[in-house]
Structure formats: structure tokens, C-alpha cells
Design brief:
It is a single chain. This protein is of the alpha/beta class. It has two domains: 56-122, Roll (Ubiquitin-like (UB roll)), CATH 3.10.20.310; 125-278, Cell division protein FtsQ/DivIB (Rossmann fold, 3-Layer(aba) Sandwich). It has five helices and 13 strands. The chain has helices at 2-51, 70-77, 90-97, 171-185, 223-239, and strands spanning 59-63, 103-111, 115-122, 125-131, 134-139, 144-147, 158-160, 195-201, 205-210, 215-219, 247-250, 256-261, 275-278. A ten-stranded mixed sheet has the order 6-5-4-7-8-9-10-11-12-13, with helices on one face. The protein has a three-stranded mixed sheet with strand order 1-3-2, covered by helices on one side. 17% of the residues are buried.
């Protein structure tokens, strides 16, 4: 009896295991079939959408242009006519457009069903820099991006003293460019006239020449505070009938301002050679 009972127990155990395996196999089969079915449905829907004329590009809008034309951007973007908007590789389009030297960055937006928007951020030239006997445009980040051509109509200060490409990213150059940007946007420094040339020297710092003949030695750093002091000095000179044109002003020492006359026409009072204004 014990042997018979033990045999039946083993048979029941095997039967339960087979039932479990059968259930697992059936479940796996159903899941596999469902996955295959959904995959076919997804591929069909994807193919239908990609081939549907509803999502074809019907309009490409280009925004943010100042120096470039819409034709320049569309030629670089190389977007095929009637291409599906969902199939556009935005990274590839961005790389192609950014090959243009004027383009700093591109944002690509998709307005379904068929409108593509290219928002262009152009580089803003801030100065000219001479390298290898040619003049190049430089932006506020010190990026030299384009050789000056005959068709480029610019009125920008010329930066001298930068002999190597790596020097455009030095701290003194970037600080000078940032200050030049603030000067160009603010009327606070109108008394200086238009800056025509800026010389940058690693040892002696920054000096500049304005179109009215004013020559300033600014040294290294603290440009804003130095020019505020200069304004007081120039106002004092004007009150005493001395023209501020054609002066050489040394502001490199923050404790004093040294003014020397170069050639001041129509002045009513001579400026003492090497006159010091203690600050």
C-alpha cells in the first residue's frame, strides 16, 4: 500500500509540473504572437505615415536673418522638395547650415502637418582683426569667422596686437570685446567718439584711438571705472576751454590720469606737458 501511494504521489507531482509548463508555454506563445502582430501593425502604420502626403513639407520658414538671405540658408539646408516632415534629420540639417560662417546656431521646429521652421542665430561682428595679411570679422566671443570681402560693408574698430589665432581666446581679449560690446550699445561713452583702433598688449594692456584723435591707454582691466574718471577730466578741460581732441591720456595707473597734448587746434589754454590728475 505504501508503494502504491508513493507512486500515485509521484504521478500527481509530474502531472502538476506538466500543467504548469503547458500553461507557461501557452502564455509565452500568446505573448509572442501578440508581439509579432503589434510589430506588423506598427510597421504598417509607420510606413503609411511616412508615405502619406499629409505630412509632406509644404512650407519652410526661415527666421532671424540679417546678413544672410533665405536662399543661402535653404541651399545649405538641402531639404528635398515634398520630403516627409517626420523624416527630417534635424541634427544633419543643423550641421549643414552651420557650415556657413555667419551662422552661430540653428533651431529647427516642426509645425505639423507640413511646416518646417529654421530659426537662425547669426554671428554679430564686433571688430576686425588682421591675420596673415588679411582682415577678418570677429564676434563678441573672440571667434574669427570670416575673411573681410569686398561685399562686406562694415564700420568696425580694428584690433591689433593679436598675432596668433589662440590669442583671440585670451582673457584680456575677451574682456576687451565684452567692454567694446557694452560701449557700442550704450550712449554713455559718446564723448569718446567712434573707436577706430584697439591695440592689445599682454604686458601694457589695452589702448585705443577714437576718430576724433583721442588716444587712451587703459592698461589691464577696470575699464569702466577708468573711463568714468576720464569723463570728469575731459569735462574739466572743456570748462577751461581746452578741446578734448588730440589728447594722449594715460589711464593705466588707477591712482592718477596723465594727459599730454598731441596737437589741439583752436585751444584757448595750453595743457601742461605731462599734466597729472590725481584720483
Amino acid at each position: 500500500m505504501l508503494k502504491l501511494w508513493g507512486l500515485k504521489t509521484k504521478q500527481n507531482r509530474v502531472r502538476r509540473r506538466l500543467n504548469i509548463l503547458s500553461g507557461d508555454f501557452l502564455t509565452a506563445s500568446v505573448l509572442l504572437l501578440a508581439t509579432i502582430f503589434l510589430s506588423f501593425v506598427f510597421i504598417y502604420v509607420y510606413s503609411f505615415i511616412m508615405c502619406s502626403p499629409y505630412f509632406q513639407i509644404k512650407e519652410v520658414s526661415v527666421r532671424g536673418l540679417k546678413e544672410l538671405t533665405e536662399k543661402d540658408i535653404l541651399t545649405s539646408a538641402d531639404i528635398k522638395p515634398s520630403q516627409n516632415i517626420l523624416a527630417i534629420n534635424t541634427e544633419a540639417v543643423t550641421r549643414r547650415v552651420c557650415v556657413n560662417q555667419w551662422v552661430e546656431n540653428v533651431y529647427i521646429g516642426k509645425e505639423l502637418p507640413g511646416r518646417l521652421v529654421l530659426e537662425i542665430k547669426e554671428r554679430t561682428p564686433l571688430a576686425l582683426v588682421k591675420q596673415v595679411n588679411n582682415f577678418y570679422l570677429m564676434d563678441v566671443k573672440g571667434f574669427v569667422f570670416k575673411r573681410l570681402g569686398k561685399s562686406d560693408e562694415v564700420d568696425l574698430p580694428v584690433i591689433t596686437g593679436i598675432t596668433e589665432k589662440e590669442q583671440t581666446q585670451s582673457l584680456i581679449v575677451l574682456n576687451t570685446l565684452e567692454f567694446l560690446k557694452r560701449m557700442s550699445k550704450s550712449g554713455e561713452y559718446s564723448y569718446l567718439g567712434t573707436i577706430s583702433e584697439i591695440n592689445i598688449d599682454r604686458v601694457f594692456g589695452v589702448s585705443l584711438i577714437s576718430d576724433n584723435g583721442l588716444y587712451l591707454k587703459l592698461g589691464i582691466g577696470g575699464f569702466e571705472s577708468k573711463l568714468k574718471k576720464l569723463k570728469l577730466v575731459l569735462t574739466d578741460l572743456e570748462n577751461r576751454g581746452i578741446k578734448s581732441n588730440y589728447l594722449c591720456v594715460d589711464l593705466s595707473d588707477e591712482s592718477k590720469i596723465t594727459v599730454r597734448s598731441k596737437n589741439i587746434p583752436q585751444k584757448t589754454q595750453e595743457v601742461d606737458k605731462g599734466k597729472h590728475y590725481l584720483i
